[in-house]
Amino acid sequence: MVPVSLRTLVGSIGLGIAAFTAIVIPVGFFVVGYTNKAALLDFKAEHAAAHIANHIRPNDANWRHRPARLIELLAEVEMASMPTRKRVVDADGALVVDDGTPIRSPTIVRSVPVTVSGRTAGELSIEASIRGLILQTALVGLLSALLGSAMYFVLRVFPLRVLDRTLGDLARANRTIADRNRLLEQQNQMLIESRSQLEEQNVRFDAALNNMTQGLCMFDRNERLLVYNQRFLDMYALSADALAPGISLESLLQRVKGGPPIPGGAEQHLQSVRNARDDNQAITSVVEIDDGRIISLVSRAMLNGGWVTTHEDITERRRAEAKIVHMAHHDALTNLPNRVRFRSDMEKALAALGRGQTLAVLSVDLDRFKQVNDTLGHATGDHLLQAAAERLRNVVREGAPMARLGGDEFAVLQANADQPQGATALATRIIDTLSAPFVIDGQQVLIGASVGVAIAPGDGTNVAQLLKNADMGLYRAKADGKGTVRFFEPGMDARMQARRLLEIDLRKALADSEFEVFFQPIVQLDPQEIIGFEALLRWRHPQRGIVEPAAFIPLAEETGLIAPIGEWVLRQACAEAVKWPEHFHIAVNLSPVQFKNRTLVQTVIAALAASGLAPQRLELEITESVLLQDEESTLATLHALREFGVRIAMDDFGTGYSSLGYLRSFPFDKIKIDQSFIKEVGSRSDSLAIVRAVTGLGTSLGIATTAEGVENLEQLERVKLEGCNEGQGFLFSPPVEAKELPALIEKHNRQRKVA
Ligand code: C2E
Ligand code: MG
Ligand code: MG
Fold first, then answer.
1. Nearest ligand (C-alpha, residue 728)
2. Is the pLDDT of residue 656 over 70?
3. Ligand 1 shell residues, CB under 6 Å
4. How many domains does one find in the chain?
5. Residue bearing the CA closest to ligand 1, atom 17
6. Cα 634 to middle of ligand 1, angstroms
7. What is each CA distance from 511 to 116, 386, 561, 565, in whole angstroms?
8. 304 is in which domain, residue-wise?
9. Taking the complete model, does pTM exceed 0.70, yes or no?
């Protein structure tokens, strides 16, 4: 807009001046010329009028008639340069004189009155030509037009052209500037964007920096502090005021309470940073500061010559690591070393074993622990284990490696002792200390311990073998009645192997229906007739054929398999018995392990219910060992069964603890005298004495007695004589399959008739 108006202005000024020059000069020239001429004419006219007035006397009315004089007078005002025509008229307007040459038009006429004595006598007019003036004016006009044109060119065209060029230049410059501006704006925009990105990055960087779990500080090439984060301040209880960026490492370290967290101080650190920078390596160090915290430092050189150090408080981590290491090698419950640790202790001890030296491994297992756990609960079981571990610790020589291997299994190493006396002595001390009563959670608890021993190098030279052999000793100790110590012997291994195979087979025997129940008649002696049958379990092993119960029942008891097997026998026997004439009863053996199961009563009731057998026809045989365990609950179970109508027989009497007291503790329906006494009843007086004592006791308590294992007539006569009520044995019949029973009964009845 502005250049356009400037152009108009310049154009207008140029045009104005040109027009002015072209128009105003000639016009002015004409006006001035005309005015001058008019003035001159006026002057001449007045002059001439004065002459004429002088000529005319007052009241001379005849002046009009003297034109010649008037012409003379007029001649006085004649001008050579300008021819004029003069006319005089009187007061009435009548022409008096008309003098002069005809004037070429156009003309100018000037009139003045001729006043005589205050009275207008007439009027004089002078006429002159203004043609010359007009011609001059035309000339001047021509010149002015030329001048105007020149000025138009000089003042308008030229300046406008210059102006246009300049404006063009300006416009171009403008465009360039606009382009530059746009570029600048773009650059500006980019700058703004990168600035906002930078700001965002800064915010992120700040957030990252201040949310780091590590403290961080960064130094520049001049070893002055550049950046640090809040965590750094917190770690060393520093205030931000005390830590203005730009301070040196030296003065930073002085401000740190709790001692400089840099090993060797500033100078040494700087030196190592410089070295590390050259090697492009990070320097790591771990320091413990005054308040006990452990700090891990990592310093890394930066490209610009500075370096950055991170500070991490690893106290907790170290503690946790130490705890994990401890946990990995210790048992959480007793805090004794665990199996892993024990094995490594053994390895070390074996490696250090010199010529002629021995190393005994004692494998310790608590007796009756499972019972405590089952009856008193796991919490008490745990407390018992802790107490047992404590006693073991006290009994074992200070520093001797020992461990809890798992469950109620412990192990102890004994080095540098005379063997086997040393191990025997230690094992005895262990058994004694663990057999002393414990008081756990306010209850007295009685357990015991069995110990197996293997001695290196004789029983093995490596950890696995020694542990295995000690375990075999332990197994033997358990099998030999617990509370004892047994040393490993060659051959145990093979037995263990066989046992393991048997266990595997036994586990699938029930599922594969390999069990079978045989029945052996129980005979009333006077008069002699079958009154019932004892159910005896057989295992029809696919490879080994019929396996007797003695070969697998102990294992079934140990592994707990006896529970499902026993239940199966019970159901099987009841189902069979219900098919027999009603006066036959069925006797079923119960294992002590089955009494630990609180559902035994329900199991029995369920078997009866399932078969429809009357409870009175069922006789359960238990051994003395049943009464050895947790008497109260066992007696409660027995009473519950008896109340239900089931009869209870004491089996194999005389083989266990043979306490007659047991016979009084429960009102048994029957005592079965063990076959070992019957076998020798004719040859050994003590056997006879026992048979006699038992039958006597039975008679006095009103309990029937059964002689087991009657094989010949002599034995039969003997036991009959001693007052036994019933007998069982090969003499009558071995145990037979169920399907043989009808024939067996038939045969027996015939024999009886014959007899
Ligand atoms: P037990 O209850 O005393 O059974 C009598 C054992 O004596 C039976 O051995 C029987 O075959 C055997 N026997 C019978 N008459 C004679 C004889 O005249 N001479 C000789 N030498 N032996 C005779 P078996 O069947 O081998 O059973 C052994 C033991 O296994 C049983 O002794 C019993 O304690 C246990 N048992 C058998 N079946 C079961 C069962 O189903 N459950 C439980 N828990 N134990 C069972
Ligand atoms: Mg029996
Ligand atoms: Mg028996």
1. 1
2. no
3. 520, 536-537, 548-550, 553, 566, 569, 589-591, 621, 651-652, 675, 708-711, 728-730, 735
4. 4
5. 709
6. 23
7. 180, 39, 12, 10
8. 212-318
9. no
